[in-house]
Predict the 3D structure of the following.
Amino acid sequence: MTDTVDTDDKTRRDFLLLSTMAVGAVGSGLAAWPFIDVMNPAADTLALSTTEVDLAPIEEGMSITVVWRGKPVFIRHRTTAEIKEAGAVPLDDLIDPEADKGRAQKPQWLIIVGICTHLGCIPLGQKSNDPKGEFGGWFCPCHGSHYDTSGRIRKGPAPKNLVVPAYQYLTDTTIRIG
Amino acid sequence: MSNRFYENPVIKWIEYRLPIFHFIDESVGSGYPTPKNLNYWWNFGSLAGIVLVIMIASGIVLAMNYTPHVDYAFESVERIMRDVNYGWLIRYIHMNGGSMFFIVIYIHIFRGLYYGSFKEPRELLWILGVLILLTMMATAFMGYVLPWGQQSFWAATVITNLFSAIPVIGEAIVTWLWGGFTVGNPTLNRFFAFHYLLPFVLIGLVFVHLWALHVHKSNNPVGIDIKGPQDTIPFHPYYTMKDLFGLGVFMVFFMFFVFFAPNIFGEPDNYIKANPLVTPAHIVPEWYFLPSYAILRAVPEIGFISAKLGGVIAMFGSTLILMLLPWLDRSPVRSARFRPIYKQFFWVFVVDCIILGWVGANTPDAVFHGVPFLWIGRVATVYYFAHFLVLIPLINILEKPKPLPDSISASVTEDGGATEAAE
């Protein structure tokens, strides 16, 4: 046999080997996906993903906590003073700059997920006798994060503002979260 | 094992087909030569193995009575404590066994650090040990979640949220870990499955750890290689007896906690059922995670790395850095007995780890005689990393080791082992 035939044979075998390996790798990857995705939220968990709330009984200055997707959602009927305070803060003073206008569709109703963006504790400030932190909003007892009346992080280890969930007004006083 | 043993026809029949008796004898029997000078710090390896067996045995029995569902988990644990025969005993053994496991393993690790057991040719043995530690940590954390008390729930929340610090994909990873939008029933179910699985992964890792150990044999207090048969004694009966004696002493210690202070390592809050809407005033991890917790909280925002991400990197880094140790410490002398400078800094490092644990047990805004714990934690964290990255390489350059003995035997016999060598 000549050298040329030998080399041809080798390239053909290399090709077969490489393509087999490639197909095998892609196949293993595809087979692995169900085992990864099985750990993501199941259909019934996703189905519970909206919550409707009637805002009418909440008086000015009052807060309530509702459960949405297993998480506490804080709804605060803000006073005029609180709205003013939140709107007056210069954006440069904020750790995670965001205007109050963009955080509440109607300024008197602040709707935020009540989970500290640091490591997931529930901040205090919903009850009238709770500590509200240095900025009149919420205070997380775990690692000392202070949030203002717009739920924005002002002091402490949390990196982000309290999250505003997706919600829409169904009527003037009813909302659907999610 | 004696030759008469192998002449038994049944043993002979089995041995011809599966040489299991030889295998056992060469692993932990008279056929395994061991340095003759091992001290009691060498008991902790076998102790760790025994604790693993105790944990698996008690854990399997607990699993028979436990229900991994958010509505029943807490009640099923209370039922174990009140109604199941000896349930209280087995649960207390398992609960305190976790703490015992870490006490034993931490001593085992510090033994390795002091006597240079991580050095050439035992680098892989050491790295496997770090993998065992990481697997143990994951197992312990998930086990802590199962009773579904307040500390269980909030520990799970805080620790899983650490992964949200990963840029871009962090949130998706956390949702994936939870199987929902918060720590909930899917989370509890999978943690139970993993808590049952990981101990068997540990057995596999321990097997490989021992395999690597048996290639170059145990290190020893003088840290020099075995040079011949005069340096060794058979593992059985000498070290089997010594290990058994140590086990007896250890069991007295262990059972003291089980019978007289079973809840001393735990938080009273964990006897309150998990409530996703109320965070306990003070979340503290189990004592064995306190140094890591202190490091997690010590890191401030540095440049574009947030405090959260920086803390997570430092916390995982503090354990992973151990894997690099064989290449950071290039001193050819293993044992600290012959390393006057390293020996002192070893003890400073031990104290630093204890300080980190103490800081981890306090709230970050607490103050100690005018000094905020946050700053004590920061200094101790910097020192922790400096020990590995600055001090150890520096000591390698500056230190002049003491002269080493001629052999293991020479270090423990009056005439330097001459009599035995002549025999």
The mean pLDDT of chain B is 93.
